[in-house]
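subagent[fold] <- orchestrator: predict structure for attached chain, return tokens only, no commentary.
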Amino acid sequence: MRIRTLLPLGLLLLSFTVQAQSDVAGSRDPLQLPRFPLSWIVSFDEQQIPEYELATGPMRKLEGVIAPEQSKVIKGDLTRITYRVSDIHTPEQVFRYYLELLGSLKANILFQCSSRQCGSSNQWANNYFEVAELYGIDRTQFFVSASLGNLQLALYTVQRGNRRSYVQLDLIQPLQQSADTLATDIKQRGFSWLNEPDSAEPLLDYMMQNPTQQVLIGSYNKATGVSLEEQLQQSTRAAQAFIAMLTGAGIDPARIATVPVGPALPVDAPLVSGLWVQLR
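subagent[fold] -> orchestrator:
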């Protein structure tokens, strides 16, 4: 009888130990990469950076300086997220989850490593990501860098000596887009955000390279302090202005359709107002 009484209590305690904790205020998951189950955000930061050195090789000591053996430099908007993972999961399980996710998105893997092949965890934690919580056991670490259309990412997971596991995700959205990155973005995600007016030229190039392709331009506006009618009008005007740039450059208006939605956008958008493109 006593065993039967203690068993439900033990299961209840176990459920509390595996339950994810609360995210830090103001944080959110990226649209492309849903978090590993039962993990939670312990650090979140967004900033525009003049240069981000995306590692495409392991950590090595080069001419007295410890840095990635190979890398590519990107200028853009950086979103840096640190997740804590429930103690019942290992870094390897977490890494496999993200690799499968990247595979389903047809991401281009630039570099990946595991264990001591990656170099020193201390260098990844303190020199590369500058997140002290990532300093863990070398044999438990995993790293991958990849591109998702115009988006670049670095992902690192490791277990510390206290058995706590963390995931570091750096997402870099370059400030400049090309016809090729726009096409890849649409292929992988089904759409691509347009940074009006900077994205007019890449989209124009893409449509000239694909002369029969029709596109749908969506426009949203989530400005506060204005009526729904005004939000719809503002999104309509933004779409019309963007299309005018394309038709003024010689694109047939029949190839372009618009959907101004005002604030009716079911996903997080990068700005209060903006546009996106998808194929018809």
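orchestrator: received. Logging for downstream: The chain is about 30% helix and 35% strand. The first strand starts at residue 40 and ends at 55.
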